[in-house]
Amino acid sequence: MKVNIKNNVDWVGKIDWELRKFHGDEYSTHKGSSYNSYMIREGKTVLIDTVWKPFDKEFVENLKKEIDLKSIDYVIANHGEIDHSGALPELMRHIPDTPIICTANAVKSLTGHYHQGWNFQTVKTGDSIDIGNGKKLAFVEMTMLHWPDSMATYLTGDNILFSNDAFGQHYASEYFFNDLVDQSELMNECIKYYANILTPFSALVEKKINEVLAMNIPIDIIAPSHGVIWREDPVQIVTQYMEWAKAYQENQITLIYDTMWDGTRIMAEHIAKGIRKKDPDVNVKLFNVSKSDKNDIITEVFRSKAILTGSPTIGKGITSGMAGLMEEIKGLSFKKKKAAAFGTYGWSGESPAVLSEWLKKSGFELLNEGIRALWNPDEEARIKCLAFGKEVAQKTH
After folding, report:
1. Distance between CA atoms of 79 and 129, rounded to whole angstroms?
2. What distance lies between CA 326 and its chain's CA centroid?
3. What is the DSSP string of 21-41?
4. How far apart are the first and last CA of the chain?
5. Sign of CA dihedral 232, 193, 272, 290
6. Are 48 and 78 in contact (CB under 8 A)?
7. pLDDT computed for residue 213 by the predictor
8. Average pLDDT for 354-377
9. CA–CA gap between residue 236 and residue 2 (Å, rounded)
10. Which domains does the chain have, with CATH numbers?
11. What is the rounded CA–CA span in Å between residue 211 and residue 140?
12. pLDDT of the residue at 373
């Protein structure tokens, strides 16, 4: 299957409607995804990226129906991760000498994945190749967005930026283009993608976008490696990335907790009531980590100006569910967000202190020392939770 993008540029990738987990079990893909591969046919025939390995034979067989594989002059590998390069071994089995254009770092990652001595030709920012008919492919290294080997490829004349992982989303759609899909669904998947994958690289995102904008090149289409292609007002997603890169937050406070016998849940709900009583305009959201998708929770953390984390004390610590989520949050390096901790206990009661230490290590500004309640919170404890919520609202207003 191919879909025309513009003139002699076609999408030749794979839509994966069944995908529900990505990066192993690390990222949830409720809406599926796509592995976008593109074919350019000018004086030279160029293939940009491939698809994930489970679809390698299907991908190559479909290519054979479109062209003689031996007519491919260049394969562009914008990124070595297996969801982009997984079909390379099957493809290169047919055309072993065809040049693979990539960064020096991509040679390392591709060789590390596949242990093949292919005909690599390395490029760096500012390099280009002539593909005939007055058109060139120009390359921009996108180091750490989100791998060391990442790059983007720009097609002159047609003004298409093949942006790799930048500006993409895990979103399956037979509509293919941004102007045809549900806009709310699209932007929800875009912010989730940014929050869970690109947040720790925000300073680099801003720097790299400014570098590309300084090149003053016209961009009519942004064609990422996952999800839909930006053809209507494509720069809107660039503008959105610039906003997300600047320590993004909305008027939202998110409470994240785990609970054993509902005590910590009761605390969370009363703290939330206290926040709302003090500040009725703030958006308050609650998530039980044992019942909610962790990537959806992280997206809400990204949106929030403050988070409250809660756990019962277990083994002088916190539940494994909260510990796992806190490890994820620490790795994402959120900026300029506030936080506090809470929890129930039966005899020792370390959980708020443990959570506070996690939050501090993760770069959050602590609002206070946290709050704890003995056993199932009684009326006095619930009143204290309400007051705690009011304090949080006051300090984050």
Report:
1. 18
2. 18
3. EETTTTEE-TT-EEE--EEEE
4. 53
5. positive
6. yes
7. 82
8. 97
9. 26
10. 3-244 (3.60.15.10), 252-392 (3.40.50.360)
11. 9
12. 97
